[in-house]
Write a structure and sequence with these properties.
Chain A has 309 residues and is α/β, with parallel strands linked by helices. Chain A is built from 13 helices and eleven strands. Helices cover 41% and strands 18% of the residues of chain A. In chain A, the strands form two sheets. In chain A, strands 1, 2, 3, 4, 5, 6, 7, 10 and 11 form a nine-stranded mixed β-sheet that branches. The longest helix of chain A has 24 residues. The N terminus of chain A is likely disordered. Chains in contact: A-B, A-C, A-F, B-C, B-E, C-D, D-E, D-F, E-F.
Amino acid sequence: MIASARRRPAHLGLLAILGFLLTPALASAQLISFPKQELTDYTAQNPFDRLPDGRPKVPDGLIERARGLSSEEVWAVLQEKGYNNQYADGFQVLHPGKTMVGRAFTVQFMPLRSDVEDVAKAKAKEHGVSRLTNQTAIDMLQPGDVLIVDLFGKKVNGTIVGDNLFFYVMKATHSGGLVVDGSIRDLDGISEIDMPAYFRAVDPTPIGNVMLTGINVPVRIGDVTVMPGDLVVGDREGIYFVPPQFVQEVLDQADETHIHDEWTKKKFDEGKYKSSEIYGSPSDPKLQQEYKEYLKRRLDEIRKQRSSR
Amino acid sequence: MIASARRRPAHLGLLAILGFLLTPALASAQLISFPKQELTDYTAQNPFDRLPDGRPKVPDGLIERARGLSSEEVWAVLQEKGYNNQYADGFQVLHPGKTMVGRAFTVQFMPLRSDVEDVAKAKAKEHGVSRLTNQTAIDMLQPGDVLIVDLFGKKVNGTIVGDNLFFYVMKATHSGGLVVDGSIRDLDGISEIDMPAYFRAVDPTPIGNVMLTGINVPVRIGDVTVMPGDLVVGDREGIYFVPPQFVQEVLDQADETHIHDEWTKKKFDEGKYKSSEIYGSPSDPKLQQEYKEYLKRRLDEIRKQRSSR
Amino acid sequence: MIASARRRPAHLGLLAILGFLLTPALASAQLISFPKQELTDYTAQNPFDRLPDGRPKVPDGLIERARGLSSEEVWAVLQEKGYNNQYADGFQVLHPGKTMVGRAFTVQFMPLRSDVEDVAKAKAKEHGVSRLTNQTAIDMLQPGDVLIVDLFGKKVNGTIVGDNLFFYVMKATHSGGLVVDGSIRDLDGISEIDMPAYFRAVDPTPIGNVMLTGINVPVRIGDVTVMPGDLVVGDREGIYFVPPQFVQEVLDQADETHIHDEWTKKKFDEGKYKSSEIYGSPSDPKLQQEYKEYLKRRLDEIRKQRSSR
Amino acid sequence: MIASARRRPAHLGLLAILGFLLTPALASAQLISFPKQELTDYTAQNPFDRLPDGRPKVPDGLIERARGLSSEEVWAVLQEKGYNNQYADGFQVLHPGKTMVGRAFTVQFMPLRSDVEDVAKAKAKEHGVSRLTNQTAIDMLQPGDVLIVDLFGKKVNGTIVGDNLFFYVMKATHSGGLVVDGSIRDLDGISEIDMPAYFRAVDPTPIGNVMLTGINVPVRIGDVTVMPGDLVVGDREGIYFVPPQFVQEVLDQADETHIHDEWTKKKFDEGKYKSSEIYGSPSDPKLQQEYKEYLKRRLDEIRKQRSSR
Amino acid sequence: MIASARRRPAHLGLLAILGFLLTPALASAQLISFPKQELTDYTAQNPFDRLPDGRPKVPDGLIERARGLSSEEVWAVLQEKGYNNQYADGFQVLHPGKTMVGRAFTVQFMPLRSDVEDVAKAKAKEHGVSRLTNQTAIDMLQPGDVLIVDLFGKKVNGTIVGDNLFFYVMKATHSGGLVVDGSIRDLDGISEIDMPAYFRAVDPTPIGNVMLTGINVPVRIGDVTVMPGDLVVGDREGIYFVPPQFVQEVLDQADETHIHDEWTKKKFDEGKYKSSEIYGSPSDPKLQQEYKEYLKRRLDEIRKQRSSR
Amino acid sequence: MIASARRRPAHLGLLAILGFLLTPALASAQLISFPKQELTDYTAQNPFDRLPDGRPKVPDGLIERARGLSSEEVWAVLQEKGYNNQYADGFQVLHPGKTMVGRAFTVQFMPLRSDVEDVAKAKAKEHGVSRLTNQTAIDMLQPGDVLIVDLFGKKVNGTIVGDNLFFYVMKATHSGGLVVDGSIRDLDGISEIDMPAYFRAVDPTPIGNVMLTGINVPVRIGDVTVMPGDLVVGDREGIYFVPPQFVQEVLDQADETHIHDEWTKKKFDEGKYKSSEIYGSPSDPKLQQEYKEYLKRRLDEIRKQRSSR
């Protein structure tokens, strides 16, 4: 879709050269600033490396393993830790059945107000950034990112991308994904592109009447405070934002849950037991023993298989 | 999903032995009691046998025939009888296009209130029932049942089953089905299991903050008073609860409707008629005659076919 | 579904003979009248021929081309013209991914009020029309029409068609389509019929408690004033009603947009550019030149291909 | 509020002279036309005189009596007649406790569409009407009218009046009233003006993005088909639109109901009876007799009192 | 309002004689039965006497004291006890500012289903109860009761009372109050009667299409399981249902809260302190001391005043 | 209400001493920081002095004059300037009819997340701030402030104040006002305190499960980006946030509007004119002249009156 292009000439050639240097520059140009140091301070429990822009970098290997996660498995660990506000739902899901996994790259918009936007633009120009739009943020996406956008539920003119930019995001993030508390356009075109996406609505209008107020700042999506670098896990039900410090434990525990489910269904399939004899845990000591052995064997298999890759 | 298992150790070995004996015991243990005699009295028009727990037993053969029903065909008979409150909709449908048919097995929950639940649990224990949870009811399901659950529209902690128990229900009811005025969890896992289900929402939390108040008692689902043993018929639109005394007539009339639809579309397909010349009934006496003969012939064929099975 | 047939005997044999002569007769019989002259006056900008009933006749060739349109492409032209009220959404879409295109045939219902309906019926009878129901309108549909129905969002008894009449509409309009600000019934049956449809709800009841108040009169669907003969374009998102005078321009501009999208994605696929270097328009003069040449070449190809058909 | 004034210069001096002659002129100028003859035909059961514009004229005396009506009393008669679609609710009520009574003067707007509006304006000009706005209709209001406006639930730019025009409507209708399926502005100012009003919302914007499509045409308000000249009765709950032919009966029956309520409460006040001994009708023959005599005496008193005015 | 009277002749003379004997009789006649023994068992923690029908009888003196309670004060005690499901809101409040206090008298309706209702009526007749309607329950109300009605949110035909029966309830309960998860009619009339009431909607239709299924059984109102005899406390915000065993503690603690609020505002009024120096508790030891003395003195005063009545 | 006090001991004695020094300290302690310099930059168009915390200080005299404003008068100027996102509605209004006017003091909360909050608290402690709660912000309020709180629409545990703190806010701001996109508690108590307030809901729970993330930062309320120091104007309809640079013009133009309304109603009161002869502007040159003179005379009177105070 080309519509918005006509009215918004853009001469951002140098942007490509600036690359990831953009973030510090933008940090002082955006209304809601969150400098790299702040980001580092507020995600101090991150056990992994960081991306050049300061975000925690959940390792690629763990991201791959996370593709097998479901919302419930994340819930189990996070509620034990007392993190009850990490789940958002109520979205339209573009490709149900295709799990979304990646690192949160956050973008925030607020309702347009010219006096404020003019200052932001002037500040951006001082730092060599000629335009402040959705593409300013989109151009900064990295492989493995999931684009998380706070457009405060806006439908009309709240469309973060159409099919062209959606295609770009897919290429840039290596099919990471998109979550927008707002809308998209070109649904017919977007439906044919193989990247997970979660949105509140669809509308034919382009984005407008808003101003870009933050890139990689803390944003609120539903009842979640999302921090840049959170591990994003989306399934048919909704989206979990996992603080990096819990990723390893979530994955390890999920292995056990998968095995437990395997065994439970196997026993149910035999047709000899009432549900409560088997699930949540076997009531009969012999069955308990059988399960323990099964769990151990399967865990060993999984680990062997994983390390052999 | 194993999450709830950890916090709720269960030693219900003897439950399996008790089998269908449970109902009478529970009848006095549950807040809303509905003894077998009451159930028999209030479903006195039932023309069929009864299950051991007292529910009317719509015969398996009729259940099979009912798989071809649509909501509209049920509506036609019930509104003639003056039964205008037997239809519920507004659900998420797990497998659109897969008709759900079976006998209503009802379960009721109410918001937790410890003073009441403590009494219920003590009464249950006196009758040898060590736990009052969703599994207490699920363990009692029979082949041909559809599990009907009143969880008063609860989403968070209103999840009657996850994928493990959904799998159990599928096995126990022989793919009967599930209707919950509440939610489910593990949608990704459940989507792969071949049993019809109707639910209001999906949530990652386990069931909680509720108490089991009745098994096979009259429950309200939307605008319907569901009686245990009702024939449940669910299609893409919604769910009909058919009192047993009307099942035969609904099915017989549906045969005629199927033939009428067949003939109507055949005539439309010829492209020679306006819709009102053919539908609802042919305006031309010759066409009326043609239809009558068609109807008779096809009814004969159907009956022959049916009896030859 | 035959249900409504039983209670509504119909003797409309002569209707088939009357054919398109019906409209003038009905014009004076319906509560909201909109005679052929008025229709012609109010659609004076129509650049095409007219149907016998006075509606603008967007040519079949353009309707075919319009199958490639998306909501956004229509939006682009119409907003430039200052037409901001031509889009309606919030419907259930029967066959997502199947574009709906055709000429608007409008029908209006209002809540039943016997004193008014009795007069309308008497007037109709004077003009030889024996019945005023949904089928009165449906019998007038032509190939290429999309049936647009104002049933003011009614769900119960707001069902414009079941599967039999839906089948008829499909045959009569050559799979044109249906838009109803109201409901349908027999969703299971309708799902198997290959015609696009947009509706607010599904219900097992037949149409009732309403009166037919206008055929091919201006109607409101959502925030749109629909005029008979508008080009209707429906995709996964919603429905555009295009005044005939803009159809050619919408289609021509869509050709350019398709090429622009093609080129944009091709460049993104190369992985060498930031999104803002390419989209909305290339920032680098060399790329601009490349795009211009690509556009010219592809436009030529498309036109050649089109004229060779 | 003057805001809209600046942008819309108006030179409608002659309009005042034209007076009620306007309706016939406008009838051909408006999109939805409903000439005086049609209005007369469709309200043929009206037992009263007619206003110069053709609307039934429920006599002033009956309007005065109707001030004592409640929604329930209207309901009782209309449901007996089979008129189940004459009640609308869901409005914000400006002055709860102040009953609204008067003759329906209807106005219809539809979403703006320039090609249509330009034709309407040209037609209006031919008939000497220089402007088609909300004020075109408002200037035609008569004493005893209630202004009924279909603005299809529009909030932003759906404001039929602000405080200045509300004041004018109050003067012109002698405090008749306003019902708008849309919004108003200047609520602070309007709250101080003593005329009943029912509206869906309040907004600071002036009316816009709509076109006037009909004056004194049949309109839909909620689930009601309102005919010009209907008796409008609004209380705290909602609004009844009474066809003129039922006004006398509604009022006569209300007299009996008032007396019945008087007597019922008197008996309850004595504290000697269970509710079912007295209400709906006394169970004891002696009480029945007492009530009959009370009814007769009070009816006589009321009639005497009424005729003596 | 007399409307329903005409269609429902009633000969319930003997009902008045039966008096409170009704409950046991009805217990076996109603679909959802909850015999006196069950009620006693499930409210075993009740520290007070019981009413003849078995409900806990919170003493009149405590009910009087409870008039000074607010929702927050009840919340404070109940959440400490782990009772988080005792509050319901989302009602229209008839007389904001007038606190509602009394003992819960519960009534349950379910959607009508003739086969079930016929049995219930026959059972009732066997026990000498000739009718099963809303008045059957209303006739059993006692001074100090608040009528709690589960009409499952029904608006049309979900009207538990009009102004006549509302007046009766006011007299019978000594202005106790009404809570209906459903609607009322005759709002204009009801507004003039001095009894607190909470309802979901208002409608002109009488109650219908439902069957009475329980009197003084456990009912669900919003997210609360209400037990007969609960202390009901309603303010501007919503309604608390207090189990009898917590009433004394709620009241005692409320005394302290009132004094605390008194003192806090007095200190704020002096204008010398930041909010956090005073509230929740004084930060300065001297202020703490001052508060302690104030609390003691005022508690003494209140108790003296109370005992002197 | 004391409930929250018990669980949150507070020793903030020194806070009172710190006074307005708090802001810079907190600026670095809060998740969303907005240092004084940023605030100054982004409100550079402010024509007035500034408060010690950097907010624009609309003069007290203009605030007083603003008490006569209505939403529509603000709308008129702001839409001319192209500021279309300065209005928020959909609130419950505590004291309808009492205009709210003052300077925006903004506070932002986000869903609780311990890893983030722990860092914020540690940073706060470093700066001598021992607690980060709603009271931290409330203690900083100045006379003339309106407290604007972003609690993202939270109802349960989204209660910014109960009656004690509401009383404090009233004292500290000299009855400035409160706007919360969230809830309040103790509505009964708050209703008796004479300060305007706008809130989404009421709930008995105290604030919880959130973290304080910003004081005097840009916040979003509905569709408005609110900047600290905006002039807040609330009436019965909703709330306008006026950038300081437009305050003078809004007030001057409102004077003219008041006079225009005065004159318009006076003319309507004479009963000689159609609405369009007078409103928006007089059509007759003589009337125009009359109005001009009236306007001039009244403006003079108003100014004289104002300067004489």
